[in-house]
Amino acid sequence: MALFPLLSVTPFAHFPARLEILTTKTPFLLHEALTPLFLLFLTLLLYPYKSFLRNAIALPVIVGLYVRFAVLYSSSHWGLAFCVGAGAYFGSLQAFNLLVVKDVGRDEDVRWMIDDTGIQSNGTTHGNGTIGSETHTTKEGRPKPNGENSPTGNGSTNGTANGSSKGVSKVSNPGLGYPTLATYPLRQRARFTFSLLCASRGVGFKFQVRRVKPPPSPSDSHISFLVTHFSYIFVTYIILDIFGYALAHDPFFYTAGCWKTPFHPPGLSQEHWTAICFPASIPQDSTTRWLYHNIVRKYLSLFAVFAILSQLFSIAAILFTTPIPITAPSSWAPLFGPVHEATSLRGFWTVFWHSIFKKGFSYPGEWLAYKVLGLERANVWAQIIIVFSAFWNSAALHGVGAWTANGRGVAAAGYFVIQSAGFLVEMVIIKLLKALGVDEKGVLGRTVTFIWMMVWGLWSCEVFFYDFLAGGVAGSEPVAWSTWRWWTGEGEAYRWGPPGEWMRWDANSLGGWGVRV
């Protein structure tokens, strides 16, 4: 019962470049990705205090392993190839941040504020060390529940959510960290170090990013946590299944001459582009096709990115709280912020969109602005440096990821570079609104910034997708098993090939126990 004529779109399982990798290129080996991360873990565990000698020995080795990893799998043209480059860049940046920018052994913000591992228990002695029983109390003198002493609303370190301290008297809560942690048993210090490496958003630590939605309370039901994330996986599966079907039936995504950006004109004339880069079901008139391209395609692609990130996050949340219980639900604050805050470019990036890399991207800028240049936090140039640091590091991560996927990454990187310019333009717009007496948070102010965000986003997003389309991403499959394609009669339901081929032991590494993906 196929709804459209079946097109000859090659499933990812039989993508020519993927078959070439499996037969001629070095297969992706899981331990090669984990080795530099393990070395960083050992370095921070054995000597958490910043020193020139430690960094001179450890940092070049860790970064060198990441560079080798990225180069080894460059131009792979396969589903995980983007993750190879992006992971290598962020791993190198994380090592730089934790070894050079931060001093894990001395910095006061590298403190554990939420106990979800059993290491601290409010005044109980653990091994050779103790953690004090400092708590927050309400006006009536009752202690607040465990987990509410942490920065959950606005990321500040004052221990109150959303910046409000009404009715709460604060008692000092320094959190758990070094040097106190140095007296704890090795197992507990290893747990702390592992959590630090995984806390890219700082959830549960004093350095938590601002405006993250509160995580589940330690007193919340674990069942409700699992139900929430399984429901996210189900909804995002539906989105990705529909997206995969749309990709297969829209010639724009797999026809090279159709791809374009403001900086890359299409390889076809406008007449030919309009004629061949749309599904036959879309009416021929220019207005409908403009709306289809700029609204339907772009928003469907945005929803797909949102769904992929949300699904991976929920899978990881379930995996590392239930079958591998090394964290608790209170470590898993929601990935995305409230969508109603996305009424400006700043609101979209700083509040709504995921903050997985936000702290890591901004640390180098903070280090340069505050420590190297000695600028005040309220200084305009300091804020500009931090904004540019965040977006340029994001540009590098996505650019390197696109490069390992298809050998090119200028457009993917360029998208995030121009976002920093978009921030500056928006700052000018907001200042003009203030000069005209318009409240930025009022109806008119939000309308103006929302229109600006939409115009800028629709204009610039094609830059981001260009390298990925050129890399054959549209020839991949977003779901392993497609209910929709099975129902419409498009062959077998599984889209990644037999499950036994997804991962297998590699006979030529680690004595036959290396994992080949």
From TrEMBL:
Q: Which residues fall in a compositionally biased region of kind Basic and acidic residues?
A: 136-145
Q: What keywords does the record list, in alphabetical order?
A: Membrane, Transferase, Transmembrane, Transmembrane helix
A GO term, aspect molecular function: O-acyltransferase activity
Q: For the Wax synthase domain, which residue ranges apply?
A: 332-409
One Pfam family name is: MBOAT_2
Membrane-crossing ranges are: 29-49, 79-101, 229-248, 299-320, 380-403, 410-430, 450-469
InterPro entries in the record:
Wax_synthase, Wax_synthase_dom
Where is this protein found? Answer: Membrane
Domain of life, per lineage:
Eukaryota
For bias type Low complexity, the affected ranges are 146-165
Which membrane topology term applies here?
A: Multi-pass membrane protein
Sorted alphabetically, the Gene Ontology cellular component annotations on this record are: membrane
Does the record's keyword annotation contain Lyase? no
Segment Disordered: which positions? 121-171
Q: Which pathway is this protein assigned to?
A: Secondary metabolite biosynthesis
List, in alphabetical order, the GO biological process terms annotated in this UniProt record: lipid metabolic process
**UniProt keyword annotation of Transferase present:** yes
Polar residues: bias regions: 121-135
Name the family. Answer: Belongs to the wax synthase family.
Could you identify this protein by its name? Wax synthase domain-containing protein
